[in-house]
Structure formats: structure tokens, C-alpha cells
Amino acid sequence: MFGLLREIRTGWTTVPEPVARRLASEGRASARWTVRREADAILQAGDRTVGVSPEPAHGMTRGEFRRLRGHQAVQVALDLHDLEHALRVAEALAEADVDLIEVGDPLIKQVGVRAIEQIKQAVGATRVVAEMMSADWGRDQVELAAGAGADVVQLIGPATAASVAAAVEAGRRLGTPILLDVPALHATQHWVQDMEQAGVDGFTVTSNIDVSFGAGHPLTRARAIRSWSRLPVAVSGGFSATDLPVLGSQDWDILIVGRSITEAVRPKPAAAQLVANIRSKRERQNAHNQP
Question: What is residue 132's predicted lDDT score, i.e. its pLDDT?
């Protein structure tokens, strides 16, 4: 039911308005809050035409995500194993006004996609990224994550042309941005541009935390990818609020941080300080660029 209602709202599936409203009325009785949310959005549309909007009203549109290029957003990864702890940290992160909260693969493996659902319910308007890690992901992973409430799906693992095509198709159908990890062996201009042409909405560069600056450093790889693509590039590498060279770099669009925030004694002020530092830097840069 979620998929059908979302497809109606993205315009992927067009039905007469009375049919859409009947389906939405049935959806409001669902035990799943994501189905009820989609149903409510259709019913609240009133007399407006149903099935013509290219993007869903809930979540983060693909266009919005792509506009993170040059924005320098903060994404905090909940690479935790305890859901109750993750919920407390997520609520603190939302209060700290981080841009994106990532439900990490360890948490999803531990408790399933209900981790996505419960965290999204807890953080409200804050955008939630679901990290789906698999050797055989594609359409199913995107549908599972979006159906649980994910605003963005971040795909980690071996990427074949077929799996990327299937994931992109599901993302378009459900109005869900797809963030694709770039394996080190695939970090070539040809591969990146092929993936952009296939329809992914952004790239992620990850690295071990002990990698020093050089060819293998995530910022070095991100710089190259940004030169080959117009899409936003996220970087992850065990960064913290004290990594001044990283914070000051122009080579990333989304900075992914994890344990330095989630394991802090007080996650909220730690996250708030990081957000403030990055936004202050962005404001200074904007002021400098003005004529």
C-alpha cells in the first residue's frame, strides 16, 4: 500500500482523484505510520489534482538533495547497536539542527528496518538517511528503506550496472534520492560519470580512519569526484569537530561524522558546535564571494 500511495503522489502512477482518495481512506486504517502519512497527504490535498506532483510532499526530494552541492551539510551516522540509545542520540541531533541523520548498517542489521521507522518518527522534519549495505542490493533495498520512512537511501557495497539501474528506478518511482558509495577501485571518471548518467543523486567516499592525506584520503578522492560530477559528494573517514583541515576544505558537500558525536558525553552540544562551525564558515565564504 505504501508503494502505491507514494507512486500516486510522485506522479509515477496516475489514477482518477476519486480512486486516489478511496485508496487513501483505506490507507488511513493501516497499522503502518508511513502508509497513514502518505494517505493523509493525499486526503489533505483537497481539490488539487492528484498524481501530477513530480516529488512527494514528505521527505527530501531528489532536487533538494542535489542542491546540497556546495551547501556543506552535516550528516551524523548512528553506527550503533542499541535502538533505545540510538533514539536518544537521534533526538539530540535533531535538536542540534544537523542536516541529516544516518541510520547506520550496524543498527539496521541488529534490529531491522524498524530502526529507520522509529528514528524517523522521533526526529520529525530532520532528514533521515538509511545506509543499506549488501552484496546484492537494488530495488528491494530502496523499497524497504523508503517504506520504513527513509528520506534518502545510501547504498554501500558492490555496484553493478543492473543493481544501480534497479535502485535508481525505485528511487524515481518513490521520490527517494539515491546516494551511492564509490569503491576505491571504481573511483574513475568513466565510472562516476556512468553512475551519474544512470540517475544516482550523489556519491559517498569512505575511508579507514587511519588513512593520512594523500591519494587514498577521502578528501583527495572527493575532490576528484567533484571535478567529474555535478552531484553532491559526501565524505566519511572518522572525522571530528577538531579536524580543522577537513572542516575548512571545499572538497566535500556533506560531511559524515560518527563516533565523535554519538559517543560524546553530551551529543547535543557536540553536534550543535560542529553545525555552528560549518555554517559560520559557509557564511564567511558567502560574504567573501559577494561583490
Answer: 93
Distance CA 45, CA 164 (A): 33
Is 197 exposed, middle or buried (CB count within 10 Å of its CB: 0-12, 13-18, 19+)?
exposed
Give me the phi and psi of 265, to 5 degrees please: -60, -40
pLDDT tens, 36-89?
999 998 998 754 544 444 344 457 899 999 999 999 999 999 999 999 999 999
SS (H, E, C) the chain: CHHHHHHHHHCCCCCCHHHHHHHHHHHCCCCCHHHHHHHHHHHCCCCCCCCCCCCCCCCCCHHHHHCCCCCCEEEEEECCCCHHHHHHHHHHHHHCCCCEEEECHHHHHHHCCHHHHHHHHHHCCCEEEEEEECCCCCHHHHHHHHHCCCCEEEEECCCCHHHHHHHHHHHHHHCCCEEEECCHHHCCHHHHHHHHHHCCCEEEEECCCCCCCCCCCHHHHHHHHHHHCCCCEEEEEEECCCCHHHHCCCCCCEEEECHHHHCCCCHHHHHHHHHHHHHHHHHHHHHHHCC
Separation between Cα atoms, residue 259 and residue 245, nearest integer Å: 19
Residue ranges of the domains in the chain? 2-43, 62-289
Q: Which residue has the cell 533495498?
A: 141
N- to C-terminal Cα separation, the chain: 52
Cα 93 to Cα 101: distance, rounded to the nearest angstrom: 8
Burial label for 214, CB within 10 Å (0-12, 13-18, 19+), is exposed
Fold of 62-289: TIM Barrel (3.20.20)
Question: How far, in Å, CA of 258 to CA of 109, rounded?
Answer: 17
Per-residue confidence (pLDDT) for residue 53, from 0 to 100? 46
Beta bridge partners of 103: 78, 130
